[in-house]
Amino acid sequence: MVDDRSKALGGTTGEALQRAIFALNGNRPGDAERIAGELLKAHARNVRALHILGRALLMQGRLSDAIAPLEAAARSGRDPEIDTQLAIALRQIGRDDDALARLKRATKREPPYLLAFRELGSLLVAMERYDEAIEVLRRGLDIAPLMADFSIQLGYIFLMRRDCVGAKASFARALDISPGSFEALFGQAKAHQETGENEAAADHFRRCLTLRPNDANAWLGLGHCLLELGQRDDGYECFRAAARGDAKRYGIALSSLAAASRGRFWLKPSAATRNLRGTGS
Fold first, then answer.
1. Integer Cα distance of 19 and 26 in angstroms
2. Under CATH, which number does the domain 1-77 receive?
3. Residue 121 scores a pLDDT above 60
4. What pLDDT, on a 0 to 100 scale, did the predictor assign at position 5?
5. Domain residues of the chain, as ranges?
6. Which residues, other chains included, contact 161 with Cβ-Cβ below 8 Å and sequence gap of 6+?
């Protein structure tokens, strides 16, 4: 039986929920919020409507507002997706311990919800609990071995711990799955650079730049590799490419150039500045 409010929304409750989901998927969170809000006036405990409302508020950056409907939805069921969305909101307002508890719960649900593993790994890294993060991400890989994100996350954890062997293996696995992944290519470049394998690192930085031609960090990485390989002119040109765009990029490129171990020794900062601008030494 269709109630009056559902008729006002133009159909059954299920149809209204479907329209709200379409609005979310179409990046129209305001419409999704409106539809879910109307449904909740008639069905205050509708878990799907509460979840949609919370997601819509999250998409609009209204974190504090999102928590109440997501908590209400989480109390009414054992859905790992809802727990994960709630944890994202909690983390973003600084409630890391509450987010951690939610994500640990979400990763124990069946069937597994993969985003929960990724979010838990990311949170544990932010909390500098690296061993736990590695364990969680490996559990995720056991469930979804073809999900490149898990291997990429593991690779960057190994890089942070200066385990370049582990990092290279993780990024290589990610690239086997997703050869066009910028994050995996960049991580592999950094792992090779860390161990002094500048030819291999430069090759991966170049592949990064085919995907994102204006990425300043990739230009800086390539520039450092070329300086280490004795290709100074090409290296300096990479620093100039990194500096183009805005003052912030220029400042980062200048600092990176001045710190380059195989670059020229700059007696004055102004000399490095002139070189970066291509106006002489």
1. 10
2. 1.25.40.10
3. yes
4. 42
5. 1-77, 214-281
6. 130
